[in-house]
Amino acid sequence: MLKALSVDLWGTLIEDEPGPIETYAYMKLKALWEVLSKYSSIDFNSVIEIYMKIIKYKGFTPPRLFAKMIALILGFSDERILEEASIAYEQGAYSYKPRTIPGARELVEYAKSAGLKVVVVTNTSFSAMGVLKLLENAGLREYVDYVASSADLGVEKPNPRIFQLALRAISVEPWEAVHIGDSCSRDVLGSLLAGLKPVLYARKPRSVELCKVLKIPVIESLNRAIEVIQTILKS
Prior knowledge:
alpha/beta; 2 domains
């Protein structure tokens, strides 16, 4: 019996941004710099430069800890300043309003109306609270029961553990959940290894090619995902 919808965030529910520094990342860094510059003469470009050097760690590091790393490299060590700066960084993008993927609202709205729990499983630099703010700004918050953020949990897709932790939080077994995402490696293989029913949202030709031997549902729109869920519910 299907009890839950697990869904990817970036590229599935909301659009990500191309480029080395996304708008929301810039907002966070600006908030961090505004705090630090109260205590020392710091050039904003220096903050960005350090960010770019350690960016590879941000997806599985809690945002406040990541902000403290930047501040430490800039020469700050006072715990009160580090704490103030880290809070500002985490909350710096709370006003960011992402663009939703067509059909995203309809998908999660249908899932809730069908009695399913909805969890978002995401590789992201946002904490779960930060993701909930993004979802709130996108008009999707009311449909989501739980967020599994790689930054909070210290594990990211395709590691099956992040899916297992998400489902454990809502008291659902893996075989009672379907996961929808746009990456073959992260979403499909990760959820499959965790025991969920995967569905590939075919936005990336490379992912379709990689996953074609798996014989899983492949959808080209999120509206089609509703049909897949309906089929599973009837089976």
